[in-house]
Amino acid sequence: MTSAPDLPRATDLLRELLGDRLLTPADAGYPDAVRLWNGAPVAAPALVARVRDAGEVAHAVRVAGRCHVPLSVRAGGHDWAGRALRDGGLVLDLTALRRVDLDPGTGEVTVGGGATAADVLAALRPYDRVVATGVVRAVGLAGLTLAGGYGPLCGRFGLALDNLLGAEVVLADGRRVTADATHEPELYWALRGGGGNFGVVTALRYRTHPLAAALAGMLLFPLDQATAVLRGYGEEVRRAPDELTVMAGFLPGPAGEPVVFLAPVFTGADEAAGRAAVDRLRALGTPLVDQVAPLPYEDVLRMFDGGMADGNHYLLRTRWLPRVDEPVVAALTAAAGAVTSPFSAIALHHFHGAAARVGVGETAFGLRADHLLAEIIAVWAPGDDPAPHRAWAEHTSAALAPHALPGGYPNLLAPEETDRVRLAYGPNWDRLRRAKRRYDPRGVFSAVPTLPPAGPPVPRVGQGRPDPREHPAGR
């Protein structure tokens, strides 16, 4: 039998540590602290702890355990299903942990658990270095990395998680450990794809890459050219070199009708080869907008700034597609023609090259074959009837399902799609569940995706490297 939360005791203990950085629904700062990018999720946490360092995180985790208060973790706050907020629980708000430190000697960068892609790229820009990111600057780098991290550098440098060299983690019992290839290697394996299901990640260490600029931009085509453009896109991505990663899909157009988009990013040294690749994409139709030029990588991500407005209501569905063939082209084109909202969109993320050459067992991420990630984004204004928009997303997902691979990208799967979470990890599923049981046997962390514990506790093998800043106070 689970003990009832002792919120008064938890409040007193946390207030002693955090002062006015502990927020309750009665505090003036509470509404801002629980406001998310997606306005649809409704959750009312009892407490929000605005922590400033890993020591405070560890203390808060111990208090939550002692007082039986459910936990959630907020970093970027961009999970579309709103799982950063736990109804009636304690939110560990990491948004103050945004420090970025580059080691010029090794080219490695250490990033706070609350840092966004924008924070990291801005810090690296003076050095003409980058990390692998997603496509939106406002997204938290930790949440993106822990479950995958598709982005414009996928073909050249792999997923964001393929570039994670180590992490500082607060475990469910409040211990602080470092997970890397030699310290807690099983935790390090699980973090790279298993999401935030094993602890609170307070810092991450990444490999960076020299990249002064990329040939990148946006090509927009009218909807009546969708079939031809997507057919050609399917052929182009099948033979694309590592240096070329191309997004595609449908975006809201200025007249309310969707437009087809292609967003190439070429990072190779051969400028002529890059321009030839863009010319082939340009020739797939008659562009309405043709804006491709050398850009700093930080500015590549600015292309998607403002594309999705904070406060609107969102529902996402996703499929993994092995190729863009005729049935997929037909399903996508039909979906664009039937869109129910002028804000909705569909995006295809290109997985190939370096990301596909990582062995499926090297990380927890379960799909290493070339594929396209379809992201179906239903959007509507607050106050609108959500039913038609939800139905559009569900219908589009169902139309793609017969042509899709099992599972789906865990960061985008809905909370109820537990069967697809299991399929997403393929041969890594059992090992991942054992890791969950080892590091979080009581199921304290229910992150994206949620993993069930498995079987009896697994005996610990060795000890992780304690964080040198750990201290016994508050235990």
From TrEMBL:
Residues 450-459 have a biased composition (Pro residues). Residues 41-211 form the FAD-binding PCMH-type domain. SUPFAM superfamilies: FAD-binding/transporter-associated domain-like (SSF56176). Residues 443-475 are annotated as: Disordered. PROSITE patterns: FAD_PCMH, OX2_COVAL_FAD. Residues 466-475 have a biased composition (Basic and acidic residues). Keywords: FAD, Flavoprotein, Oxidoreductase. GO terms for molecular function: FAD binding; oxidoreductase activity. It comes from the Bacteria. Its cofactor is FAD. Belongs to the oxygen-dependent FAD-linked oxidoreductase family. This is FAD/FMN-containing dehydrogenase. It comes from Micromonospora sediminicola.
